[in-house]
Amino acid sequence: MIRRFGxxxxxxxxxxxxxxxxxxxxxxxxxxxxxxxTTPPLLGFARFACWIIHPKGVYDFQLATFENLxxxxxxxxxxxLSAKVGAGFRPVVRVRSTHSGxxxxxxxxxxxxxxxxxxxIVTHDRSDTxxxxxxxDMEIAAREVNMARMxxxxxxxxxxx
Length: 161
Description:
alpha+beta, five-stranded antiparallel beta sheet, 5 strands, 161 residues
C-alpha cells in the first residue's frame, strides 16, 4: 500500500508542469546562499489537487521555502529576479525595510487565459524566505481581496465602538 502511494506521489509530481523561471530562481537562491530549499510534506499532492479543483481561482502554484536564510539582501534578490524570473513578468511590488531587512517582490504577467494572471512572489523576513508562483483567476482573486478588506473594515468599526 505504501509503495502504491509513493508511486502515485512520484507520478503526480512528474505529471505536473514545472516552470523554468521558478526553478531558475530557486536554483539561483540555493547557489548564492549555499542552502537547499525546504519542501513542505505532500506539496506535490496539494499542487495536483489545486490543478483539478481550482480553490479560490488558483489553477496552479509552486512553492519553495528557505529556513534560516542568513545574509539575504534585497539587492541580491532583486538582481536574481530581474535575471531569472522569465519573459513577460513585470515588477508590480517592491517593498524593502532598511531596519528589519525584510523585503517582498511581486512580479506579474498575463497568463494564456485572458482572465488569469501569473504571479511570482518572493518574500523574506529576518531569516526565512518564501518563493511562490501562482496561476490565478484575477476576478476571483479581486473578489477575495475585497471581501477581506470589507471584513477588516467591519472589524475596525466594531473595535471603535
